[in-house]
Amino acid sequence: MINCLIIDDEPFARELLAGYVAQLPQLHLVASCAHVFEALEVLQQQRVDLLFSDINMPQVNGLEFVRSLHAPPYVIFVTASPHHALEGYELDALDYVVKPVSLPRFMKAVNKALAVLHSRPAAAPAPAPQYLFVKEGHALRRVLFDEIYYIEGMKDYIKIILKDRVIVTYLRMSRVEDQLPADRFTRIQKSYLVRTDAIRAISGNEAELYDLPEKLPIGKQYREALLAHFGLG
């Protein structure tokens, strides 16, 4: 079964492609997304083998989105514009389908994808990425784990504290915690996630970090696990 993802800002286009996918038993639709930020969350949480992506979308277009991915799935661009075909194929797209899309044309693109997917050798597991993507303004910003000192939760937003800047983005604390490696980041209080090797000292109920003047509070329910992480429990 081939896991598919659709990205298109037009509801009718998403419904049409989803209907085509439903008619092909080899395909399984993981999600149908209206924008790339929603699609990015899906890619970070589930295996996607084949991406059907529009190109002309607000904020971040389909070409920019695929270019930003560390290990993108196979891609079929489905767009109203024929003018970006060369750019699409430069990104190793399997096909470039111009709207309106008929079922026979869709099946032709899918058959091309199935031939490639079924002939690929078994790959070794890809190394886990050492970064996450977050929305900053109208851009997707890649943030390396090594750059992060701590993350502060503020209801539906988070603040990511780097050495020389702060990124504020619309993301829940629980969601970003799922994207961070548990062996490198730990929650020390309900509102604080800290990169453990950035902790310089634990003083009472406060954590001191390298290079930063502020001290962060350690919640009672998190203190024991924090000490155990350093073999101090």
TrEMBL record:
All residue ranges annotated as the Response regulatory domain in the record: 3-114
Signal peptide bounds: none
Domain of life: Bacteria
InterPro entries on file: CheY-like_superfamily, LytR-like, LytTR_DNA-bd_dom, Sig_transdc_resp-reg_receiver
Gene Ontology molecular-function annotations: DNA binding; phosphorelay response regulator activity
Descriptive protein name: Response regulator transcription factor
Residues annotated as domain HTH LytTR-type: 132-232
PANTHER family the UniProt entry points to: STAGE 0 SPORULATION PROTEIN A HOMOLOG, TRANSCRIPTIONAL REGULATOR-RELATED
Taxonomic lineage: Bacteria, Pseudomonadati, Bacteroidota, Cytophagia, Cytophagales
Residues the record lists as 4-aspartylphosphate modifications: D54
Keywords of this entry: Phosphoprotein
Cited SUPFAM superfamilies: CheY-like
